[in-house]
Amino acid sequence: MNGRRGGWPLWLVLGLLVLLHFYLRPRFFAGRGAPDFLLLALLIFSIRSRPGTAAVAGLLVGLVNDTLSPAHFGAGMLSHTLVGYLAAWGRAVFFADNLLVNAGLFFAGTWLRNLVILLASGLSVGALMASLTLWSTLQAATSAAAGVVVVLVIRHRVDFRIDE
Amino acid sequence: MYRAADRSTFPRDTVLFLVCVTVSVAALLAPASVTLAIANSIRDTALRPLVWLQGRAEEGRTSRARLQEAVGQRDSAVMAGRMVPVLQQENESLRELLALRSQMPATGFVAAEVLHQPLPTDGRTLLLSAGSGEGVRPYQPVVALQGLVGVVTRAGASSSIANSWAHPDFRVSAVTVDGSVLGIVAPSANPDPSLTVLEFRGVAYRDTIPDGTLVVTSGLGGVFPQGIPVGRVRGVRREELGWERVYQLIPLVNPGHVSHVLLLTLPAGEAFPDSTGSDAP
Fold it and tell me: Which pLDDT tens digit goes with each residue over B106-160?
């Protein structure tokens, strides 16, 4: 991937999202509905990468999450790998620069990530449904909103090509 | 505009994906001691700056509220403290008369921030901003102002992991506050998903506990000191074959919302059952 001349390189945007995740989110958002900037970084990277590269990125992001919250080590790696791979694969069926598509992707990605983690955690059906319908949906919505803001900020500043 | 969608998925991508899935599944199936050790080493090296950053952010968010809370607690403590020397003297005299040994003392504590993660499993395990450098060891009880939060399972150099009471493996020996009924507290697989509760197990069938009764740690087992509030009884959950009642317990602390905790330490010379970390809970 090559940064556009005069624009922001992608790594800078991803780095900023990591900083937002570890500084802005705990500073201003509390609770299970807080947006997940690390997942947003993964999705923004994945939608502009090859599926294999996105899967590896997902594995690494999942490893970070599992390291910080090792209730079920490996669940985060599995879920983020799937989300990264599917997001990259999804490039074949939608336009990556459409704002609504991006919002939908962020929502679906967050929700799917939570679904896989909850399934791997072995929750009861009732708790699983409550978590999926309430908290996961809320977090997916906040993450999608935050993601749209990020895309609005970077869409004319970041451009790059995918390596062949 | 971005490049037109790539409509082919190369074998290399599929292979990478399958490798990643295999690694993830292997991590899921690996023993907890291995995965916790891996997580510990990554947290203490590559992620250390980020954990530090989150700790500072968490401090910043809660500092104002904590200051007000601390001032209120200090005032209350000053009022309550006026009676402490008299009660202490009275307690010692009575224990001497009854030939009772003193309860297990937890003389110190390490304060830590809870660094919440935006994952649905956050609350089962908690990342704490204090590690072995501050004196944190596995098996240290984790408490908040309202009561018991959990127990430390792994202590890294600058951060540690605790299992909260919501973790499926969590157990604590407990007793009603009047000391009449003893049992084991464990998390409940609750069919009502809107309510996360505990169970007070092993209560003899002949014993009944009124609703609202406070349940505290019993001090048995050598991990949790006596008298840490755990929860309040809310009815019988089930009865086991006519010899045991299992009560529902409403926990006093919500691990998903707690932001500041204390990790209790033992006096010098005393140790928790296994402080090597090799067989952490």
Answer: 568 888 888 888 888 888 889 999 998 888 989 999 998 889 999 999 898 889 9
Nearest to A92 among B3, B5, B167 (CB): B5
Chain A CB within 8 Å of residue B157 CB: no
Residues 2-31 of A with CB under 8 A from B: 18-19, 22-28, 30-31
| Domain annotation covers residue B198 | yes
Domain count, chain B: 2
Output the pLDDT for position B23.
95
DSSP string, B73-118: HHHHHHHHHTTHHHHHHHHHHHHHHHTPPPPPP--EEEEEEB---S
CB-closest option in A39, A62, A67 to B43? A67
Could you give the percent of chain B with pLDDT greater than 90?
26
Please check whether residues B147 and B261 belong to one and the same domain: yes
Q: Which residue of B has its CA nearest to A71?
A: B125
Q: Is A63 an 8 Å CB contact of chain B? A: yes
Report the amino acid identity of residue B158.
S
Q: How many CA atoms lie within 13 A of A160 on its CB side?
A: 21
What percentage of chain B has pLDDT greater than the value 70?
Answer: 86
Q: Does B226 lie in the same domain as B178?
A: yes
- On whether residue A162 sits in a domain, the answer given is no
**Domain that residue B187 falls in:** 172-251
Residue B185 lies in a domain: yes
Is residue A50 in a domain? yes
Mean pLDDT calculated for residue range A135-145: 92
Match 């500041």 to its residue by tokens: B260
The per-residue pLDDT for range B212-260, each reduced to its tens digit, is: 999 999 988 888 888 899 999 998 888 877 778 899 999 999 888 888 8
Which ipTM value was assigned to this complex? 0.86
Structural domain total, chain A: 1
Residue B270 three-state SS: coil
Q: Which of residues 66-125 of A touch B (CB under 8 A)?
A: 66-78, 81-82, 85, 88-89, 91-97, 114, 117-118, 120-122, 124
Q: Any idea which residue has 């949906």 for tokens?
A: A137
**Distance (Å, rounded) from C-alpha B263 to C-alpha B241?**
39
Residue among A55, A94, A127 whose CB faces B20 most closely: A55
pTM of the model: 0.76
B220 plus B261 within the same structural domain: no
> Does B121 sit within 8 Å of A69, measured CB to CB?
yes
Element (H, E) at B204: strand B198-204
Query: In this complex, do B50 and A22 lie within 8 Å of one another by their Cβ atoms?
Result: yes
